[in-house]
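Hi support team,

I submitted a single chain yesterday and got back a structure, but I'm not sure I'm reading the token output correctly. Could someone confirm the output below corresponds to the sequence I sent? I've pasted both exactly as they appear in my results page.

Thanks,
R.
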Amino acid sequence: MIDTNDLEVKFKLCTSFIVKEVIALDPLARRQWLFTYKGIIQYADSHGSELTKEQIVGANIYRDLIKQVEELIKEEDFEGQNYNAYKSRDPDYETIYKKRLKQIREDFPIPDQFKERTS
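Hi R., thanks for writing in. Yes, this is the structure output for that exact sequence:
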């Protein structure tokens, strides 16, 4: 027998994991993620009668994930603040990571008032 409490905990943990992964993406990848899944929701909203129950539930999960991601984005002091947050960095890729971080800072500069905190 399936323990529904266990399933609920697992679902909440999975949701939290996904939100943390998305919020830590580079800002461009994060925008693309949001754009893609908002499109899926729009499709589901406009074609609801043609969708299976599973597709409707999936769209609702995306809706919840997007809401959580957007709430965390609103809490950022600047775009890209959470890039690679919650991540351990593989030392074999440190040079690439530093180059990517430099590019992100060029594309999404840290506002002057926050530079001291992030240095």
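A quick pointer for reading it: The mean pLDDT is 90. Let us know if anything else looks off.

Best,
Support desk
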